[in-house]
Design a protein that fits this description.
78% of the residues lie in helices and 4% in strands. It is mainly α. The protein has a two-stranded antiparallel ribbon with strand order 1-2.
Length: 196
């Protein structure tokens, strides 16, 4: 990798980290919907891992996890009601729940984006990577939430129904947003890179 390519990668990684922080620390990226927050923080992570590679993508996933952790602690805006309930029982479990799934997002999106599928156009592959990255975030985050609620003895039927119901609706919307936004942005970045 040339010095110019390293500088480009560092600049774009920094830009995507700034977007994750901006979205995460304002209502732009974590939108309160009932007892959960819908998110778009996964979108810069998915774009970053596909456009820049796995190492910058993992850094972006870590930034997503750290911002999510700060939000769970109420910095700068209050956490969702479900997160606050778990936070009262075990802040450590909330940190694990906030970080671990966010490290899987870039890993799985990267693997799907690099699949050597014949007959599948690049746009379709990018849509698939976007969907997998977004669904990974939803399933593992809310899955850990359910596991940790049960572990702490908070697993009543109403909580399970709330997490799964809200997660299904929000997860579908988040995945659709990723599939719409990520492919054209990645293709534009690739086109710009080819010109240089």
């Amino acid at each position: 990798m040339t010095t110019h390519e390293k500088l480009r990668q560092l600049t774009l990684t920094s830009l995507f980290i700034a977007l994750v922080v901006l979205f995460g620390m304002t209502p732009l990226g974590l939108i309160p919907v009932g007892t959960l927050n819908a998110t778009i923080l996964h979108i810069p992570v998915i774009i970053g891992v596909i456009a820049l590679g796995l190492k910058p993508g993992i850094i972006l996933g870590l930034a997503f996890g750290l911002v999510s952790t700060l939000r769970a602690f109420g910095i700068p805006l209050p956490a969702s009601a479900l997160v606050m309930t778990l936070m009262d029982k075990s802040p450590l479990l909330v940190v694990v729940m906030s970080v671990a799934p966010r490290l899987l997002v870039p890993l799985l999106a990267y693997l799907v984006a690099r699949l050597p599928l014949r007959g599948v156009r690049r746009y379709g592959l990018l849509c698939g990577a976007s969907l997998v990255g977004s669904i990974t975030n939803t399933v593992f985050y809310l899955g850990l939430m359910l596991v940790f609620y049960a572990f702490m003895g908070l697993d009543n039927a109403a909580i399970i129904a709330t997490i799964t119901g809200s997660g299904a609706v929000q997860g579908a919307l988040e995945a659709a947003a990723a599939a719409i936004i990520v492919p054209p942005v990645v293709l534009a970045l690739e086109k710009i890179q080819k010109r240089k």
